[in-house]
Write a sequence for this structure.
DNA sequence: ATTGCTGCAAACGATTTGCATGAGG
DNA sequence: CCTCATGCAAATCGTTTGCAGCAAT
């Protein structure tokens, strides 16, 4: 299980939270939707994470702060965040939808260890160029792409070597 | 709905089928598993397709040939094909697992229209290079990657334009 | 007041498994 | 014969929805 880290650099986080809250409110107002204390709480906790959370994982974190908030509310909040660009779906292709927040985050991709589930982020500007060039070539108006690398992380490679030499 | 095309270039297909059948038999034998008429039939029909089939779609094709073959058998056959390298999972991120066969197919990626679901295949050797370079950089032994581009195909762009100018 | 939000529970849909029966080695 | 494969039905599991009551505008 990859660990979920909480980011507590007070100053930068604070600013980020305010930006995000403002963005969310504007988005809601524009669609005639309403604010709620639950959404604010979920957003705050979501932004304080790094990494890639399933609805269930975020719900667990949220419950630690307010046990009355239900799974469905977290589920719908994440959809909302994704709609207004605060969150992006991350595709690890393990049957679970994960989200990461997109505030002050450079465009990046993920490499996932298929043994322990850990992941690292990497930057690869070429990939953006490929998206545009292929889109143009086939007459597609491209909106996004999905790129992941799968393999075995260094730690798991060592464990596997130990296991095989022991047997 | 993307259409499933049947490839009936008799000569090349025939050869391909024999290679694949041999590969499958060797794989089964190596694990102490057994051949069956159902698996042969499913493999034959699977190889005659192009594109990306869900279990259900392949089951539908298989039933046209032999209505007694059940969904579960097709499901398990596809897993088997994937294990022995005859098939690869294709990830379109729509909640359905799709497979494509991997005989005589260059490494390729997919660009998917998010409006009509159609897709085109493209080749991008740079992506392989990125996989290796990033893997090396972070100490991962990489095994594969997943790369898709999403957007709107030419036909759907036209339809959208017509719709918006009509309103 | 009206309309959206919440939280529960139930529905959903694809995938996966248990089991009795049938077939391959 | 023994083991695996099959096909049905049921279980699973994350996601999604319906609804009654609550809260925001």
């Amino acid at each position: 299980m990859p660990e979920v880290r909480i980011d507590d650099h007070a100053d930068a986080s604070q600013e980020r939270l305010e930006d995000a809250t403002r963005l969310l409110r504007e988005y809601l107002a524009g669609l005639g939707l309403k604010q709620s204390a639950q959404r604010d709480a979920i957003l705050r906790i979501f932004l304080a994470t790094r990494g890639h959370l399933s609805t269930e994982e975020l719900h667990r974190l949220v419950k630690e702060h307010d046990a009355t908030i239900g799974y469905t509310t977290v589920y719908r909040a994440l959809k909302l965040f994704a709609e207004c660009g605060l969150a992006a779906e991350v595709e690890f292709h393990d049957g679970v939808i994960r989200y990461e927040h997109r505030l002050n985050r450079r465009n990046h991709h993920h490499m996932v260890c298929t043994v322990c589930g850990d992941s690292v982020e990497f930057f690869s500007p070429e990939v953006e160029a490929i998206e545009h060039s292929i889109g143009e070539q086939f007459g597609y108006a491209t909106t996004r792409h999905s790129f992941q690398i799968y393999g075995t992380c260094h730690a798991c490679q060592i464990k596997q070597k130990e296991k095989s030499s022991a047997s």
